[in-house]
Specification:
The chain has 82 residues and is mainly beta. It has one domain (9-81): Cadherins (Immunoglobulin-like, Sandwich). It contains no helices and 6 strands. A hairpin with a 4-residue loop joins strand 5 (63-71) and strand 6 (76-81). The two termini are 14 Å apart. The relative contact order is 0.24.
């Protein structure tokens, strides 16, 4: 996923994060790429839904978010803007 900021310099940098416990299983890097940290038991969980936050370095910082849905049956990652 991508987020953009019109500010110049350091204020235009965007930082991604996944809040809560799901951040222990999934990771988003600073390029917006989501990956899995550990094996997932599809029999126990076939779908995950979690927010991904984007925060810029401005003062005050601006934020945006999407809700990502990971379906284990089809290895599909779907994100919708919130």
């Amino acid at each position: 996923m991508t987020a953009s900021d019109w500010d110049a310099g350091d204020n235009g940098q965007v930082y991604y994060s996944i809040p809560g416990n799901v951040g222990e299983l999934f990771h988003v890097d600073q390029h917006g790429v989501i990956s899995v940290h550990a094996p997932v038991d599809r029999e126990a969980y076939d779908t995950f839904r979690f927010p991904v936050l984007a925060v810029d370095a401005g003062s005050p910082p601006l934020t945006g978010s999407v809700v990502c849905r990971v379906e284990m049956d089809y290895s599909v990652l779907l994100c919708s803007q919130s």
